[in-house]
Design a protein that fits this description.
The structure is a single chain. The protein is of the alpha/beta class. The protein has a single domain, classed as Periplasmic binding protein-like II (D-Maltodextrin-Binding Protein, domain 2, 3-Layer(aba) Sandwich), CATH 3.40.190.10. It contains five helices and five strands; from the N terminus they run H-E-H-E-H-H-E-H-E-E. The protein has a five-stranded mixed beta sheet, sandwiched between helices. It is globular. About 13% of the residues have low confidence.
């Protein structure tokens, strides 16, 4: 009986540590290395909500979102966009239905975001800071 209690405790502790690691992932914006625009969390919010279609330097901004079930997407939606993922989905549904917007393209992983941003000077995305490579320029969100 005691071994079973110990095993349950260890599994619970491991799961708690794993979940806190995911929750503590630091997201950063990523843009092409040649992008010289001034970008902060407010500019990213406007771009990812379709309220702005250009960077501060006047060049087109193409947002790249992560998949709806991604932990990074959930964090980005709540921390940067100030809305839950459900609210963001409803927001875009309304814009699409009324013909007033097209939601950002969605990809499944940090590496896909990095590949798309590295291949397109106008793309902007977000990834876990630990995933950043030299192919993109990272911009802190805080």
């Amino acid at each position: 009986m005691h071994v079973k209690t110990l095993r349950t405790g260890l599994i619970s502790a491991f799961m708690g540590c794993s979940m806190s690691f995911v929750a503590n992932a630091e997201l950063v914006l990523v843009v092409h290395p040649t992008n010289d625009a001034s970008i902060d969390a407010k500019a990213a919010q406007r771009i990812f909500l379709g309220k702005e279609s250009k960077f501060s330097n006047g060049k087109e901004a193409i947002p790249i979102n992560q998949a709806p079930d991604s932990p990074n997407r959930s964090s980005f939606d709540s921390d940067t966009l100030g809305r839950s993922s459900t609210q963001v989905a409803a927001y875009w549904s309304k814009l699409v239905f009324t013909g007033k917007g097209i939601p950002p393209k969605e990809v499944g992983t940090d590496s896909e975001v990095i590949a798309m941003v590295a291949d397109n000077q106008n793309a902007i995305g977000y990834v876990d800071s630990a995933s950043v490579t030299g192919a993109v320029k990272a911009i802190p969100l805080n």
